[in-house]
Amino acid sequence: MLEAKSLIRAVVPSSLLQYPSPAHLQSTRLAIHVPVSSRGSSCWIYIASGCSIYKVEIPLEDSLINRGKESLLIPVHTEVVDSLLLKRCPHRFEIQSIVIAQNESSGDVLLGSVDSFGHLIVSKGSTDRDVDKLTFSASPRDCGVGEGSWAGLCFSPSVWSMTAVARSFCKSIDVYDQDIHLRTFRTLWYPSSLTFLKNFCHGNERSILAVTEGSQLTIWDLRIKENGGCLHRICGSLGNMFYAVCCSSTGNISVGGADRTVTIYDPRRWSALSRWVHCSKYEITGLAFSSTHPDYIYVQGVDYEVFCGNWKENNRVFSFRGDSNWLGFSKNSDRDVLGGWCDSGSIFVADVVAKEVD
């Protein structure tokens, strides 16, 4: 059982960023990291607006959890500890997605960002205030011609230098090893989310990608050439677009979208383990499995709401709302700390822990 330890609201200083740029429906312009050096006392929130990335430090304070109407958690206001503009992410077009990954062997933090034309920049961070080194960058194979659109990226969980970049209007997935282009997958529909799979039964986790495109979930394998690298294709309800996909530590895959339903798939049989029908009031645009307990999942909807629930029992544990449209939503990679950024400038951070049994 999980419970919210704290829910904090802070506001991005207007001196740092006054008017954020508009975001896509499934906006992925926030990344969250809890440094080991902070011992859980604070977290860094990375947000992207326009061609720039900003870094905001917010304290993780223990606070009393108050509930309002419909048992929604009420956030406690706090002040931003530190904030700055990152100088080592020189994009020329609007940034669409940012992702944080941590190199377990060295402890370095990797910040990946991709703009609307598919230009990828990965910067290496440390315990310093700024991202201190440009690690590598890669340009799309078509040199970024045509019309810009939503673009997303993800890191391989086992090989920190391997990244995958999705470009919506181009209907393409490009895979890189640092700045070396490895493979391009061509999707049938516009891709909307992607992730490398963990503990995958049919191959190692550095070669298998899960992608949502239109109303389909597609699985791609870097090692095969048949069908353009497409390993499997699962079709959802016709006309109901998928906007989010995520993978648990046990290998299960979850998708959600316009049908307001969270579906959990077992990759060993490609069958649905569970369907949490109409669990959200509006479209689902963000998903993340709990790191503490993989039977729980965090769901973000376009109605400002984020909730945690048990997908096996189809019941909610807690929920909270932002104060305007989400510009980004993310979970820390190895700890249940959630972050969300609204276009009002508010940042919401929830620290979730396992509930102690009396």
Architecture overview:
The chain has 358 residues and is mostly beta strands. Helix content is 0%, strand content 51%. The chain has no helices and 31 strands. The chain has strands at 2-11, 30-33, 42-49, 52-59, 66-67, 73-74, 76-77, 82-85, 95-102, 109-115, 120-125, 133-138, 151-155, 162-167, 172-177, 180-186, 191-196, 208-213, 216-221, 230-235, 242-247, 253-257, 262-266, 271-276, 284-289, 296-301, 305-310, 315-321, 326-331, 337-342, 346-354. The strands form eight sheets. A five-stranded mixed beta sheet has the order 7-1-31-30-29, with no helix packed on it. Strands 2-3-4-8 form a four-stranded antiparallel beta sheet, with no helix packed on it. The chain has a four-stranded antiparallel beta sheet with strand order 9-10-11-12, with no helix packed on it. The radius of gyration is 19 Å and the shape is globular. 47% of the residues are buried. The mean pLDDT is 89.
Quickly describe the structure.
With 358 residues, this protein is mostly beta strands. Helix content is 0%, strand content 51%.
Query: What class, by secondary structure content?
Result: mainly beta
**Largest sheet at a glance?**
5 strands, mixed
* SS field, number of helical segments: 0
What coarse outline follows from CA principal-axis ratios? globular
